[in-house]
Batch of 3 targets.
Target 1
Amino acid sequence: MFVTSPAEEHATKPELYEALAGQFAALIAGERDGIANAANLSALLFTSLPHLNWAGFYFLRANSELVLGPFQGKPACVRIPVGRGVCGTAVERAATVLVDDVHAFPGHIACDAASRSELVVPLLREGRVVGVLDLDSPIPSRFDGEDREGIERLAAIYAEGSDPV
């Protein structure tokens, strides 16, 4: 049985993300399937982080579009062109994109009208972007630099510990 610890048990965000990194590393130990590991990371984040309405993956196909992968939350957009929306912008820049107010982000793609802020971290394998880990919140400015660092670490654990999807 796998047990997670609620966010309230951790005094700081860095402590929370340290615990999540340990939990996720243990969860995928001995398992390299990229779909299974993405599904488990989506569930771990969605159930452990407060104020999320979506947590999941998009995977890059033919270097031109992202295709929906495992996630937790409401149904989502299936395909996103590189360079469009927050996810496509993260791929184009090969860098994390943190958006305090998605309504102010040019070209934002609204899969869930309740989303107000977003954090998208590219998945890197051998220096190439292969997808993104996407978190949405109904709370404006929900994500900060500590969230960015924590999610980047979890994305790296996923990319290093999982076979390509």
Target 2
Amino acid sequence: MSIAQTHPTPGAAKTIIGEPEVVEDGGAIDVAPSLELARGVEHDPAWISLRDAATALQAVQAADGSIPDPGDHETARRHVASITAAIGRLAPRFPHDADYLAASIRDFDRWAGTRSREGAFGVPDFLDSLVAFQPQRHRVDGIRHLVVFPMYTQNGSRDRHVEALLVEAIWPEAIARLETLYPNPLFVSLRLLDFTAGYDTDSAVLFPETVAMREVPPFTWGAIFQDREAARYRRVVREASGITKLELPAEAAQMLEDQELTERAFVMWDLIHDRTHMRGDLPFDPFMIKQRMPYFLYSLEELRCDLTAFRECVELDRRLSADPDLDQADAELLRLSRLVQYAVIFDRIFRFAITGTRVRNYDGLGGQLLFAWLHRRGVLHWTDTALAFEWGEVPDAVVALGDAIDRLYWESIDRPKTSHWLAAYDLVRSVLEPHPASAWARGLPDDVLAGPPKGYTDAVRDDEFPLSMFYEALEKKMRDVIASTRGIRG
């Protein structure tokens, strides 16, 4: 999930937390009134009207967001009128988003042809309101936003339909301090309050690039719903640890009982993960945006970022544990740094590895890889149908996998693209068993090796690294639990 592309700043001054405020355009804005005004907004009749009208509008929209049948236009205008009227009634409850909400009404009116019916309900263009929406300027714990755009939802719907959400920022004092250590000014952490059908799915992100717009502006923010990630984690890990007879450490067990604690751990994980995509000794554009490459490269990139978060949390854990004089925020960071380590391991090996189809499932492959690496290092045991860890040795073993991926990246700065692909495959297959029919495992023929990169990618099987027998059995037992997390709320 690549959002931040900023450079780290030296030093780590401790944050002083007082009355809620944010800095925007050079001046401080008091957002305390906004916190109170939006309280209970999810029960406001205006929100219910907006949500229902957006849902009804989706029924007549084509996949690109347009409404091609003129016979649907009058009905659509009524729905749009309900949406804009509701935004107008709700806007006073979100004074920090006044410019965005005004721009949203104008974008809806233009799309619906309120002033000129010519060209009404074509492919929607909400660039103006998207540019006006700047949630990264309001990173205050508990502040809320009304979000309405025609957009697709990642891991949800590919249709650019009008979606509406009510969301709340998660930004406690400890996270504000963490961000001074790992600057990521584009990162926004949110909690879902209510939403339309596009988010009644597996989608746990809100990214500006998903919005229908006439041109692509520089993106200034990206949001992740940590409440959904935390809720999925708690449900899946609770069930999987029971099935595998894993005795959870006390701190890890606390996460299964405390949603807000788990949310904060996921904020910490995602903040560091996100900024890692453009940091380090990297081959050009390691995230491979809009490039067609073998899916295992995506596996290694996402895993690299997760393991960087893990490594940083290990270092924070060790450094803060040695400090006898921690204030409240640093004590919370110490606690979260330990929880993130459990979260990375358990989310990867229990949820990621068996979620989704077996068609080029790069997150699934990353989970398999982490499990097998720890098993082969002798710090994870599956013996007598019970799972166990050598917890004292686990941190260094996980960090070693991160180091191996970092080494691959550093060496590949001097390699041609396809040579990097081959080296990456060798790293994965050194831990995981490829499919018996794999052309890559047998060795690609000379005509492919001498040909364009497309030939390499075409030769990768949809399920190049099938599930192990352990995971085949676990997936059957966990299938219904994984499915039950679709649309989950915190």
Target 3
Amino acid sequence: MAKRKENEAGSSTGHRADALRVLGVLKAATADQIQRLSSPHLTYRHTTKDTAAKRKEARTASHRGALNDLRRHGLAVDGGRTRGGEEVRLLTKDGLAAAGLELDRGPEEMGGMPKSAGRSGASHAMTVNETVIAMIRPKPALHLVAGEPAEAIAAAQACVDAPDGIGSITSYATEVALPSTGTWKNPGVGCAWADIVLIAPEVGLPLLFIEADNCTEEAPIIAAKFDKYMRHFHRKVKDTDGQDKPMWRTRWSAPDPQWGDATHPPVLLVFNQVGPRPALSQMKKVAALTREHWQGQEADGFHLYNGKMPIVATTLELLREHGPTGPAFWRFGRADRQNLWDAIGNPRRDTALARRAEDARRRLAQEAAEREAQRPVCADCGAKFTDDRWKASIAVDWGRGDSHPHLCDDCKTRALEAEQQAEQAERERQEQGHQEEETAQASRAGGWLGRWRS
């Protein structure tokens, strides 16, 4: 088959777009990572190859071809090799612009290049990428693995049946500046740079910052990042409405209350056990050094975190095993691991408030039942009084009570009408009696006068 001129390496336009989207977010990645993110079904193809190396070569062939095409068009460059010997690809300036079109993001939203990209095996960039993959947990389309060996189909089915991850590649951004001075476009020296930013309001995560660490940095260096985060969170600028608000809210939104009752967005620390420092020990040390940023106040069985930043930690191994929905996350200040939503939230507070609301509902229901038991019934028809009728029946107006306190509105109306009719009949009877009396008197007077005249 003749190769198209615009795709000299023989890649499809779709695979080129996949590579641009992934590199536009991750900035530096291998063909294997791009394939696992954009075409996870290929992971379950070519399973009959003799060795793992041959299987990997076969399943990544299309994306390697796409990367070669991007390189020939000046959109990507070689970025060295990982410690495992895999080629790393980076986008050029033109490549970032092309990726921005694929992702529908402006230049200021594309973020910076990863730390040490293309140098020293790009170990940090690779950990960032693996963290994104572990958060997304891409699932294969089963119809695309039809016809493969039974073991491969079973493995693909197991992946589909496993707990979901969060979002897609377009839900993420990397190397995002969080300026404490300067602007979004030109951040000041010493600002925080988020390794990963996740925006997934559709699953209850309007904003999550993620930091990846290979267990190579000392705990005080990691802790210092949170000082920079907090300086950014405290910074206020004028928004388009002329009102001062936290700078981060001019770029991202989050509902109120945000995360449990915490004021500032949460940060997730993901440790990859590559370096010599034990991940668990690093978590404890960083927690102790950042206490002022995350520690809440005791409040009747739970903690309040107003003005604080939720800091959550896990390992890449736990994240891969359990995913975001599993017990992989330790919130600084808590004893047990939780799923991501509980870890960044305040479930004890939610439970306590829900219990109080339920107690209040039951109390109101009991009071309503007791009141209902006291509700009067009409002495005539037996119907229960309405609230308004009940209130009117016991009201006192200038010393006068209700004329018919034991009757409902309808029966009272009929009683009043009957009384009025009776009063009217009595008046008519009395008037008739008066007339008859007057007639009789006139008759008697006429008789006496006649006799006197005669």
